[in-house]
Amino acid sequence: MSLEALQERIREAAARRRALRVRGGGTKDFYGNAAEGEVLDTRGYAGVVSYEPTELVLTARCGTPLRELEQVLAERGQCLAFEPPHFGEGATFGGCLGAGLSGPRRAFAGAARDFVLGAKVLDGRGRALAFGGQVMKNVAGYDVSRLLVGSLGTLGVIAEASVKVLPRPPEEATLQLELDLPEALERMNVWAGQPLPLSGTAWHEGRLFVRLSGSASALQSARRRIGGAALEGDAARRLWCDIREHAHPFFAGAQPLWRLALPSTAAPLALEGAQLVEWCGALRWLRSDAPPEHIRAAAARAGGHATLFRASRKDVEAFAPLDAAKLRLHRALKAVFDPEGVLNPGRMYRAF
């Protein structure tokens, strides 16, 4: 598939005001509100455009399978530092950026948008727009390429993007400690303020797991400071992979899954249901049948917000409601990038 073919599909849809469902491998179809429209399959526009290992920059097209891209990086001892989840074999590079999700390393390395240097985007008129470039200091004014990360295709099709990559850590170790949630939160926040090579934290059912990444000497020093028992070899690798890919037993079942973004120091929330806590307390997964308004109110009181990440019901907005000012801003952005409203309408908010 050519870029021109994608542009033509968008132009036709805009002329007819017919909705398009921008979709790669479909591994994140569950995320956000229900998708509408004819499928615009991006998988045909694939391939690594350029890769400069010495410059730590990779440019690829949207349909490139994420596993293939990561394999290219692994062959040179490098990686996507934000550790994106795949949620299935068909995950694509464009879908990774469109969803904007990051894995366990996010709290210590940065979010997906932090690594995007530039992007080529097809807007709702089918125009090809370029933002940013291939170096960190290339933006004067608002960084539009990063705005597109996490927009779920509602502003444009991310046809191509350049991202910063990083070397893979030379060594890793995982520690396990028996702690209740209040004590785990306290310790994680203390460790986060110290020069420790943290790269992942996860608490569930009285056990706190801490991943360390770096040199052997750094890991040895950190292990002495943190304590706990070591989780060895494949067991450690499977743990973090299962948490990232939601293959951990906590995520199984049909009960609604909520994603709570809170200040890391927020006290445990008094909500019914099981929890798995990541990012030193800043990300709290909740399996609960509690009313959505109760969950969102509790998150707001704690200084954060709650997203209905996965649920069989689609009558509840996936994302936290916007106040009037933010709603106007979102609508204005949508009108600029997609004036006919053809790209993934309603996927983020049903109002646009």
Would you give an account of this structure?
By secondary structure, the protein is an alpha+beta fold. It has helices at 3-16, 66-74, 93-99, 106-109, 144-147, 181-192, 216-226, 233-244, 292-301, 324-337; strands spanning 20-23, 38-41, 48-52, 57-61, 78-79, 116-122, 128-132, 157-164, 166-167, 171-178, 198-204, 207-214, 229-231, 257-261, 274-278, 283-287, 305-310. It folds into two domains: 3-167 and 328-337, 2-Layer Sandwich (Uridine Diphospho-n-acetylenolpyruvylglucosamine Reductase, domain 3), CATH 3.30.465.10; 169-253 and 255-311, Alpha-Beta Plaits, CATH 3.30.70. It has ten helices and 17 strands. An eight-stranded antiparallel beta sheet has the order 13-10-12-11-15-16-14-17. The protein has a five-stranded antiparallel beta sheet with strand order 3-4-8-6-7. A hairpin with a 5-residue loop joins strand 6 (116-122) and strand 7 (128-132). The chain is globular, with a radius of gyration of 21 Å. The protein starts with a helix and ends in a 15-residue tail after the last helix.
